[in-house]
Amino acid sequence: MSTYSDTFRELRSPGRVAHTPRAALAPARGLRLAAGVMLPLSLGVLLGHPQYGVYAALGALPSGFAAMFGEGRKRAGAVALAAAGMALGAFVGALAAANPPLLVLVAAVFAYAAGIVGAFSDRIAVAALQWPGALLIATSTPDGPRQAAVRGGLVLAGGLGQAVLVALAARAETAAVKDTVGDGDAPSTARPDRLPRRSPRAFTRYLVGTVRTHLGLSTEHGQHALRLAVTAATAQSAALLLGLPHPYWAALTAVLVLKTDHVLTVRRSLDRIGGTAFGVLFGLLLAALAQLGTVPLLLGAGLVIALGYTVFTANYFLFSVFLTGFVVLLLDLLGDSARSTVGPRLLATLLGGVIALVASHVRPAAA
To answer: For the chain, what are the domain ranges?
Structure first.
């Protein structure tokens, strides 16, 4: 059973908060994934349709997180999985945005589905966690079926474009390994073993069996899935009742920081809240680049998101700073003034982080 002393033990000095091990940094990967985000965003802005570029970038951005785990084709497959679920989430979120009770329900359903699907592997868990995120982000601008479908299609295109870049990078890495070991047989460390292939029927039984195992409260993943659903619904409802301009920020924060492990939830919550506080100020500076012209704005945005991907596995606080700054810029491109989003973003993030912390205490992962 977790206690509040665990929370206070995770309060760290500024030096510890910003500590970033060099070995955990991935600058090459950060640049590759940033290219997958900036390509559709730049095309949309330069062609005079920034909203289309933003939607496609919002498909590529979270999809890239799934490329942090696994090897080769597995990374590309996880990115594609994230993109497909995000496209559906964007479509449903845009339709449900005008109906608060329905929105709370679908947010809970998507969060629960992400929790259950996460039982397959850490890589798939990261991919699935982007599904409720895309749904919640899409609620910022309600749309009819046609426009919601267009938005979902753009999110899917952005995510699949990111998957293609990840696949190409994986192929290049494989070719480099072959060149290193020569034309002979590669050592086992260079070519990891693959799982035995299953027939379609056996694979379907495996999928269904795994999901059925974790339904209910008998497993840790089942408990966590229910906790995610209740937390998402609670955060979204609380933000709506408080009248926050962008209520989805609270639910999004709660879903992203809530983990099966209590101590990790504490760390993520504190890092997310602190990182957002600095990130919105950083976003104001980034949005000011628009006064210098389109090219400086896009270059600055590309640098920021590349840094975010680079530190993703090294320091969640710094990642939150860079990610928030980039998102503030995207909202500014959609017409939401960067200055007007500072206060509501901070309040919603604080609300979501606190709700996630409470949920972690009330229903600890370990039964």
So the answer is: 4-10+24-177+220-362
